[in-house]
Write a structure and sequence with these properties.
The two termini are 20 Å apart. This protein is of the alpha+beta class. The chain has helices spanning 9-20, 62-69, 98-104, 141-154, and strands spanning 25-32, 36-43, 46-47, 52-58, 72-79, 84-95, 122-136, 162-167. Strands 1, 2, 3, 4, 5, 6, 7 and 8 form an eight-stranded antiparallel sheet that branches. The chain has one domain (4-167): Pnp Oxidase, Chain A. The chain has four helices and eight strands, in the order αββββαββαβαβ.
């Protein structure tokens, strides 16, 4: 595979999208002046071809208050079964556009929004990715364990796979 920096902008987005597609829940980190960093699990609804991440949320919540105060966020994805990890930095915005809500809405969201698409608290959190860093090892745990052991015995550095940065 070519270095990520050698890929076109759209290829970098496709690469990133491929890394996170199987991770159903990410950790979203926001910031506020009083308490500092706060993280919580969020289900990614969509990653668009321009690199925008979408999450359903309540329009009025602690998280949206924090996003209004400071738009900078981090989103972390972990897939330990496939040894894939992605950390995204970007800017978040609360979106209440009815057309976008209808486009992304699925019936499973009724568990959090009992009134469905007409829930007055239904909103989206739009995260515009500025940069993402990834760690990926396509080898299974046994192979990685062997590589770790070999590095420890030989005094060499453990090489676990690919690592890189995607700037959008």
């Amino acid at each position: 595979m070519a270095e990520v920096k050698e890929l076109s902008h759209s290829e970098q987005i496709a690469f990133l999208k491929d890394k996170i597609k199987e991770v159903r829940v990410a950790m979203l980190t926001t910031f506020n002046d009083e308490e500092g960093l706060r993280s919580r699990p969020m289900a990614t609804t969509e990653m668009e071809n321009d690199g925008t991440l979408w999450f359903f949320t309540k329009e009025h919540s602690r998280k949206t208050d924090e996003v209004h105060q400071d738009h900078r966020v981090s989103v972390s994805y972990a897939d330990p079964n496939n040894n894939t990890y992605v950390s995204v930095q970007g800017r978040a915005k609360v979106v209440t556009d009815k057309a976008k809500l209808e486009e992304l809405y699925t019936p499973v969201l009724k568990a959090w929004f009992p009134d469905g698409i007409d829930d007055p608290e239904l909103a989206l959190l739009k995260v515009t990715i500025e940069e993402a860093e990834f760690w990926d090892s396509s080898s299974n745990k046994l192979v990685n364990g062997f590589r770790m052991l070999k590095a420890a015995i030989t005094g060499t550095t453990f090489e676990s796979g690919q690592h890189g940065t995607v700037t959008l």
